[in-house]
Predict the 3D structure of the following.
Amino acid sequence: MAVVELSERKHTILRAIIQNYLETGEPVGSRTLSKSTDLKLSSATIRNEMADLEDLGYIFQPHTSAGRIPSDKGYRLYVDMLMRDKEQELEELKSVMLEKTDRVEKVLKQAAKVLAANTNYATLVSSPVNRRNTLKFIQLSQVDARQIVAVIVMSGNVIKNKIINVGEMLGNETLLKLNMLLNTTLNGMSIEEINLGLIARLKEQAGIHSNVISNVLDAVADIIHVEDDMEIYTSGATNIFKYPELSDKQNAQEILNAFEEKQQLAELVTETLSSEENHGIQVYIGDEAPVKTMRDCSVVTATYDLGDGMKGTIGIIGPKRMDYEHVMKTLTTLQSKLDAINKKDLDED
């Protein structure tokens, strides 16, 4: 039997019929569609299109004088359309985010260089991370007979993929059900809010596929933490040799090691971001610095905010006799420019 490709209008009407039927459980007539949707078509036109859809087997009339309801064939096409649309949305979102991430990286690297050149001190700029990650969307798709991939979108449009072993072919209907269950329940939640009671309820609703829910939630817990994703861009570490009090061989080597290994710098960034009060400029002098290898230095930091919970840290490390007024003015200027990145969409790289 030849496959008849539906026109865009027929696709739209079929989608409207199914959505209306899912909401009401009642057969759908042409007048109902003309009143309750944005089709902007007359009842007669809708009636003709519905007749064609019925002839093609996508809808049927349960009894005389009733409206139409979807057939299995209609549901199948609807599910396939949903999956295709959602996959396209995710691909477009991935493309945009990859491009934006690349541009943000270039901006932050350049910012660290400009800051070092402008101050003659060592500098760092961390990539933006979200200290309060929440879930925006989860998409489960079958990879092969034994695996699915979970595409997890978090606040800030951070996208992560995780391959999950399930040991069986789940099928589109099952995946659609699980996707709807997960997104309806978890949208907008942080990992801290996903408690044992909620997990138990999700597993009960998933029935025989409760193990899939467990595996997906484990994947979410694994990737929603942000510390491992933080990048730190540095510049001007050798500037410390310009200051006699810092150019002592051991002191200088400790500071250089901190800039090369970056673990201690990550601790500094974490300390800055973890404090709710740290919205402005922070000045750490000597032993106040979270990084102990910088006990002979002053460390000045500021937090920038890209919106949607995405924040990062700018830092300047120099001698205790640094030009604090110039440093704070420079930091404030850069902080404002980075804050504006999200609004300008990086058009002024």
